[in-house]
Write a structure and sequence with these properties.
The structure holds 2 protein chains of 2 kinds.
Chain A lengths: L3 E10 L2 E11 L3 E6 L6 H8 L7 E6 L2 E2 L5 H7 E4 L11 H9 L7 H10 L15 H13 L5 E5 L7 H14 L4 E5 L3 H7 L2 E6 L2 E7 H4 L3 H7 L1 E8 L2 E8 L1
Parallel strand pairs in A: 3-8, 3-9, 6-7, 7-8
Antiparallel strand pairs in A: 1-2, 1-4, 4-5, 9-10, 11-12
Chain B lengths: L1 H13 L7 H8 L5 H35 L11 H14 L6 H26 L5 H26 L6 H8 L8 H20 L1 H7 L3 H6 L4 H23 L5 H13 L3 H25 L8 H22 L1
Helix pairs in contact in B: 1-3, 1-13, 2-3, 3-8, 3-11, 3-12, 3-13, 4-5, 4-6, 4-7, 5-6, 5-11, 8-11, 12-13, 13-14
Chain lengths: 248, 320
Amino acid sequence: MTALSADKLTVRRGGATLLDGLSLSLGPTGSVAVIGPNGAGKSTLLKVLAGIESPTSGRILLGDRDLATLSHATRAHSIGFVPQHFDPHWDLSVAELVQLGAERGERVPQSAVDATIASFELEGLGARRWSTLSGGERARVLLATVLVVDPPVLLADEPAASLDIRHRLDVIQALAARGRERLSVVVVHDLDLAFASFDRVVLIDRGKVVADAAAADLIDDPRLDAAFGVRFERLKVDDGWLLRARRT
Amino acid sequence: MLLVLLVAIMIGISAGHGWASPADVLRAIAGDPSLGSRLLVEWRIPRVLAAALVGALLGLGGTVFQGVFRNPLAEPYLLGSAGGAALGATVALLVPLAVPQSLLLPVLAFAGAWGATLLVIGISRVSGAVDAAGMLLAGVAVAAILGALRSFLMLALSDETVSLQIVLSWVLGGVQTPSWPVLGLLAAITAACVGLTLLIAGRLDILGLGETMATSFGLNVHRFIMLAVLAGSVVVAAAVAFGGLVAFVGLASPHIARWLVGPLHRPLLPASALIGAIVVTVGDAIARSALPPAEIPLGLVTAVAGGPFFIMLLAQRLRK
């Protein structure tokens, strides 16, 4: 059974082809890392899958229903989207932000809101305003705001890119762990984190899926080197491999 | 805040060409038949209440526009409504028509303000730029064109019988003294505007998360921006029709209200309306009583007070 699938997605904007007939099928559970060089179309893919942008052609199915025909509320409740950059225009408090997240789609009971706040360790921060939060706190607030409705599908566009390594690990591992019960698709720039934390890795280049396999299988694949335009040395460590890039 | 407004209204009623004590005011409201009391009831009290309502409308309009454009420097006249209203008023004041001017002026001012905003929305739609930046650019262009048209009309239509001074003093803003039925109409419009803007309050909050996030939260961003701009410009057009172009109240009130109640729009909209009402009531009292027997245009009072506020705001933003 598939939870979310893309069928021959093409996106053209201003003469550039961002997605080029891309197809992808994702199950109801699993942690999926999307990797690829800059400009490969990762962010575009995620936005189109989330219904934020519409494809030039092709379609997206959520379960067995066409995403374009769903109501905005149903879509908002079914797909959680974590953007690459999030900077609210008004200096809202943590509690207000999470509450706004909870008010989309169907009704979320207060107990669920409290549970989400607790699970991201934000209990003491409710009254704090966004401008006073650290980067790590902001990432947790953003995740809580998106996940408070417990959407079956989570699409996250590299939410940890600007964090220090400890907070990045926390965020990426929380997202990957979500894949045990739900579908969690995350654009990841740090290849080692992608291969170490996620079950499945999808490699995208020039708007197409170049390789799509279990993390352990893809790490050896020469298409990885070709897509990034480098030669990777695969270094064996205790629980897997590390990649070190060399210029070709 | 309501208390502050009541005090402001009381001061507003007392202040003026001749100072009336609160006791005089109470006696007048109780139905005292003396000339002084009748003047208070027929002229000053409606004028003060109208000032408060116009201020409330400006506060609401400013909050909606700042919310839609997610820009704390946005003000209600942003999308050409000031230029449109001024053009409408110029026509009403300078073109001899069969309709009495007291009726024609608010109607044409309203039509001008609302029409200019519709024009701006139309232009940004046709050019395919339905986002906030596209509308702002269209607004600047439309304002320039309307300003030029108004100047032309003023030059072409004025002669010894119609003075340009009445046009100028209208453009500088000033609450007209309404009859009690007209005041009732204004009160009803204001109440409707509070209700209308509260309907979009939740979605203004969502929009404040940014367009990408708002879309992922299920908001149809472009359609909502259009809807909110339409709602906001009804509010502003109503304010302009009754109070002329009063500067800076729509810009400043939402900021003061945000300091007091925070940025969520459900409490912010009514708070901003109250602040606007207080500011215009006090400003109008100053306009009426500072240089008796003359009256300073209200827009001048609010601009002199609001200008420094605006500069402070800008400095604070730039420092961030």
